[in-house]
Amino acid sequence: MKSVNQEAVEQDPQQLHEDLHDIWGNPKGLKALTIVNHTTLGLRFMITGMVFFLIGGILAMLVRTQLAMPDQDFMSPEIYNQVTTMHGTVMMFLFAIPMLEGLAIYLIPKMIGARDLVCPRLTSLGYFCYLFGGIILTSSLIIEMAPSSGWFMYTPLSSKEFAPDLGSDFWLLGITFVEISALSAGVELVVSILRTRTQGMALHKMPLFAWYILAMALMIVVGFPPLILGSVLLELERAVGMPFFQIAGGGDPVLWQHLFWLFGHPEVYIIFLPAAGIVSTLIPVFAGRPIVGYGWVVAAITIMGFISFGLWVHHMFTIGIPQLAQAFFSAASMLVAVPTAIQVFVWIATLWLGKPKMKLPMLWVMGFLIIFVCGGLTGVMLALVPFNWQVHDTHFVVAHMHYVLVGGMFFPLIAGLYYWLPLFSGRMPSENLGRWGFWLTFLGFNGTFLIMHWTGLLGMPRRIYTYEAGSGWEIFNLLSSISSFVLSAGIAMVLLDIALHFRFGKPAKHNPWNADTLEWANTMPPSAYNFVSLPNVETRHPLWDDPNLPHAMAEGKHSLAVASHGRREMWGTDPITGKVREIIHLPGNSWWPLFAAAALAVVCLSLLTKVYALAGVFVIIAGIFLLRWSWENGAHPKAAPDAGVKPGDPPLHSRTMDGPGLWAMGVFLIANGSFYLSYLFGWFYLWTVSPEWQMPETPPLSLMLMLAAGVAVLAGCVVMERLVRGLRQQRDAGLGAGFYLAAALGALQVGLTGWALWQAELAPTQTSHDAVMLVGLVYALFHGGLAVVLTVLQGLRVGYGYVGAHAPFEPGVVALLWRYNVVTFGLLIGALAVLPRVLGG
Description:
Layout: H1 13-24, H2 38-67, H3 77-111, H4 120-142, H5 167-195, H6 208-240, H7 253-287, H8 294-307, H9 323-335, H10 337-353, H11 360-383, H12 385-391, H13 395-425, H14 431-457, H15 474-504, H16 542-545, H17 549-554, E1 568-573, E2 580-586, H18 592-608, H19 612-631, H20 660-689, H21 703-728, H22 735-760, H23 768-800, H24 809-839
Antiparallel strand pairs: 1-2
């Protein structure tokens, strides 16, 4: 095959740049809300995250002011509980993860030699969901209705009995809305890293930062759905009285802890991994040599990702779980220190063998190494069950958490921001202001939280709003509070430095740190399309091995240096080898993500105010917006009606059977499967553990109707598979009729399932058995209905000429949903209809 680098036509680089800008450039004014470019959206994520960080920081200072002296009445107990709950919630959900995702959204395409993320409108939807969800959640502070049950929202403290106001509802609905954003970014990053690396960049040649982000995104995809399920169940309990967490109704409040920490402990590593990725990126640059043990680091990342999902009971040692379980989770909690230590030793070895330059970013990296190692050591201490029993719910745990999360995330984040600031702005940061900011932050942080280890060992509980004089805690709390203001001054100086540098910073030369990765091949600040031409990269250090590469790319001497077709294009490559498979054409700016997110925001507000009819209406409206958005795809005139490519180039992805949309659907279904498996876990957990679980003597669900519905969905899936197989063989005769037949079979499944639900006569507000069964059946009805709608749309698209042998891509995506529905519906029949008959109560 002719190399895609051998372009026959010489083009004027400046004209090519202008043509690409016309295609990729961002609109101004009100239309700026339609931007889908990853550079702009990544910056929006980070700026919004920094605003929420300031809110969370102010709340933290209120807490330290209250605890500075004994018997303080600076805040009432109710307000104090709201402030502490919102501090943890804002920092964990509205700052840490969105900030790191924003950095990844900004950097990943630049690092892997792509022009954008693979689903840019999904990124836009994620941002607006994050923005609206964060506004809804933080608005509860203004009206003094903020949640007050702790950022972990343990039941029954967060249930209707003990939290009758709207605080818990704000948390549950706002956080669920924000989680949509996190999952969107997770799906986007996984597919982009696997399928859009520039040609030649095999998996083992990928920058380490991309490995860390890939692990983080996969963990988000698997780890966030359990919390979404828990939030849905608790909101249903609060809104309509389904007793999922009430013992009297057959529920169990400990189920919430399981669902929360199935998310909560992986989240620690979801936050740590991108920060460690920053460290693994910066240390080789400032040490002036490649990282020692690239393969060991990749193995450590992978192992850490797997082990982190086996640690959730680490947070539940004191609730009365069996000793065998305590021993297992204690061992797993200590085992995770091994991959962490591997990375620390690799970093130290790289510095030892190199010639480190102690520039400003490296100062923050060194601060991270000191603080994170200390936090890791206290983590191993807490993994020991007897010690955990002694310090659980004391300030020792609070101090450990801040050492791991703040030290392990915030210090590398600031190091990364200083490192990439020239890329953002084209200007260098101030070494003097930056060093003042570092030392004030470092000393203030350790002064605040190192002392809190001691107050915890002295027995000071967390989440108390005051304490009596003479307890022995006074001087330590005063020192912690004074240090916290020093910490705040340091952070303020850092933010001031970053803000001032955009106006007064010295202009940066190209690649000012002599870095090795592709993001520094951009202009500073970057263009909307990143690269004029896409290079062939077969080394881990492209800029070290070929310093002239950025100039050659800017002059259009590499691939896809063409703009005459008007498409937004980049490579679609093999996930393992990096060989080019297809040309991915991306959608342009659009209002649909904003409209869909706004409709979902109205749904949240309607649920908060108990206007359920309005919520139902806007669920439908949001669905219409999303379906309308999906209509502009493939061979649609606004997507890519012209499939022409240059001689020697691969086809457009919409003219193949394996485009990125198929991968996006697959990753989304992994997240969906995690949600579904969490549901099944809840069903069997309550069945086997809840003391008041009531299994009816006669199973309420008709086995015959459910089996008939299962046969219908299986038959519809078989029809879809035959149609997709025909398209692979370039046959599309009877394609539209086949889609309508499959949709009819899907409608039959939905009808039979609904009939079975009607006949069951469940009482979901009386027993958790019926409530859990209702949730499972509604889940099946929703997914069955979604498959029907999408299949009907495929039939319509055949009629419009958007789908067929010439454009066979989309049916394979819908067929993947059908396969998922067959598996999940079969499991539902087994769990709800078969096993109760076999095992009884």
